[in-house]
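FAQ: What does the model actually see?

It sees only this:
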Amino acid sequence: MPRSPSIVFRQPRRTTTIRLADLHSKHDADSIVRLLDEYAADPMGRGRPLDVGVKEHLIDDLAKHPSVVVYLAELQSKSVGLAVCFLQYSTFGGFSLLNIHDFFVSATARRRGIGRSVLHAIFRDAKLRGIQKVTLEVRADNIAAQSLYQTEAFGECQPPMLFWQNALTQ
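And it is asked to produce this:
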């Protein structure tokens, strides 16, 4: 699938750059781990930072995953947001889709349109890749995120779906 170049969004008095992360770049790797750690510690994450062991192998594991796509949002050359996505396939629809697995903007950079800019970059890149649908999960109590997603034409699946898990024990 074609890779898209960086997408630059110009906003009043600042420039936000949304680009594909390079998992082999130390700068990008450090930014991804830092942002995911901040997200995990956030009340809308899990309320505590990532475990040290997870931080140590996270980038290597992502780099081995054949369908990962990571977008970084930069404001004044500092990474302030990210979206970790995975390419998937709809067997019922017969088309490729992109699932936004993690979506986060640092607390210090919120309410500046960065999240919306990341979504627009994802949509543009998905279209370049021939992807027909973008999916995501959102916490029921994350009203701010739901509001953003709804303004960008996301809505509950029909019929409504539940997100379940089975934490397999070793």
